[in-house]
Design goal:
5-stranded parallel beta sheet, Arc Repressor Mutant, subunit A, alpha/beta, 472 residues, Rossmann fold, single chain
Length: 472
């Protein structure tokens, strides 16, 4: 096996400029790069002695064109364990879906930020990274930017949404805490959309996705000649978003000196670009996110106390998915509906066996990981209903430990599909609905009949026909 020092990234690309950029980025990450200009060259290189060191493959879909899926199948057959990332210029997921069905690990839509590209590569090739359906997706489903699109009834989650909705109508800065994948970015976007600044400019920056020098220029701006390579003046986002909102994702990953500089800007309302002789007044509202360890970060000095004090007038904590497991059925149905609207996908439902697996996992990647798992399952599942067979890795991890009766008691509802994905007989579904109603209304048969929209005599006739004990 290749050592960390000899790991090799194969880049299948005939664009010299893009190849040089990716090679430079890969070198910074400790990779050697092997660039080939065609699919045939790639297959020959993989079969060579050097090909044994390839630990990741980056494919520009433009090179093989319509034959991209065929090339991916050939590569996957030759090297089944090597992650394959595809770059595509198409905003339609159709090509990406075909590539993933052929064996691609992940895809990115161009133009793609270099740091985001390398983050995707790191995620796919990390030794401890989850594989197969548990591998996170780089691209996200487009989200509706309002609070109604945030699905869930768990008390902690609804409390966070209510607090966010109130804060959105105010004027102060907001600090959103939560584990990765809990929906912090979506919540902050929804807050901007519900705020009095919704028509003004809004920008989002991932503070952990770029080097400190790049982040400094992006946020604060710089004057021409401020440093080597500053050939032109750059307007910072604090200036660009004057009168609007700047969203700073993972603000705790910003270097401490930049945190202190930002705190000074927010305290004084004056920003001075790097190299500028004078500053100027701005009016920017900050929504920032942080992993749920702000107090610990303060104790260790990794997070600016001044910045924390400025931002934390309103603190909103989003709970992890493991603390709102009862929301998994509703989230699953929501994501399946969204995925089914994408080009190249069919509409899928989920059978009880599949839903039990989803409920049995603790979701370290939270809601974002659940979405990725469902996306990958829909890519590969040909049947209408997702079953336990649609999630082979989860089934292997969890085994047969999930209890069907316990899951039903938690409110999964009436089951529409058998384990093989076929629709259950109407008589069985009707019987389950009646049993559910009798239990829900505690045997009050008049109320049961009223809620089901039938007469009491009809209800009792059905109890007899279906063999249901009215004490069910």
């Amino acid at each position: 096996m290749a050592s960390e020092a000899t790991r090799l990234l194969m880049l299948i690309d005939d664009d010299a400029a893009q190849s040089r950029l990716v090679s430079a980025l890969a070198t910074r990450e400790g990779w050697r790069t092997l660039t080939v200009a065609s699919g045939d060259e790639a297959k020959k290189a993989l079969a060579s002695k050097d090909g044994a060191d390839v630990r990741g493959i980056l494919l520009d879909q433009r090179v093989p064109g319509d034959a991209a899926s065929e090339l991916i199948r050939d590569i996957r057959s030759a090297r089944p364990d090597v992650p394959i990332l595809m770059l595509t210029a198409s905003t339609s997921p159709l090509l990406a879906v075909e590539a993933m069905r052929a064996g691609a690990t992940d895809y990115l839509i161009q133009p793609v930020d270099p740091d985001r590209l390398m983050a995707a590569l790191r995620s796919a090739t990390r030794a401890e990274a989850p594989r197969n359906e548990l591998q996170p997706m780089t691209e996200k489903l487009a989200a509706d930017l309002d609070f109604d699109a945030m699905v869930g009834t768990a008390a902690l989650f609804r409390t966070a949404l209510a607090k966010a909705a109130t804060a959105a109508r105010g004027h102060g800065h907001v600090l959103v805490e939560g584990e990765s994948g809990t929906g912090k970015e979506m919540l902050m976007r929804a807050m901007h959309a519900a705020s009095t600044r919704s028509k003004a400019k809004m920008k989002l920056v991932g503070c952990g996705a770029m080097p400190a020098t790049s982040l400094e220029s992006l946020v604060f701006g710089h004057e021409k000649g401020a440093f080597a390579g500053a050939f032109d003046r750059q307007t910072g986002l604090l200036e660009h978003c004057d009168g609007g909102t700047l969203i700073l994702d993972d603000i705790d990953r910003m270097d401490l000196p930049l945190q202190e500089r930002l705190a000074n800007v927010l305290e004084t309302g004056i920003v001075r670009p790097t190299g500028a002789a004078h500053g100027f007044k701005i009016d920017v509202r900050i929504f920032a996110s942080i992993e749920p360890m702000a107090d610990e970060e303060l104790d260790t000095g990794r997070f600016s106390k001044r910045l924390f004090d400025v931002l934390s007038t309103t603190r909103i904590a989003l709970p992890p998915l493991r603390e709102r497991m009862g929301d998994i059925p509703a989230l699953t149905r929501h994501f399946l509906a969204k995925i089914g609207e994408q080009p190249g996908f069919s509409h899928h439902s989920i059978a009880d066996s599949g839903l039990i697996l989803l409920e049995g996992y603790d979701w370290p990647g939270n809601v974002r990981q659940l979405q990725s798992v469902l996306y990958r399952a829909c890519v590969h599942e040909q049947r209408e209903a997702l079953t336990a067979h649609s999630f082979p890795q989860l089934a292997e991890l969890l085994g047969d430990s999930a209890d069907r009766g316990e899951s039903r008691a938690r409110g999964l509802g009436v089951l529409l599909y058998t384990d093989d994905g076929n629709v259950r007989p109407l008589e069985e579904i009707e019987a389950d609905i009646i049993r559910l109603a009798i239990g829900h209304y505690r045997g009050r048969m008049t109320e049961v009949a009223r809620r089901l929209g039938i007469g009491r005599s009809t209800l009792y006739r059905k109890l007899s026909e279906l063999g249901i004990d009215n004490a069910a």
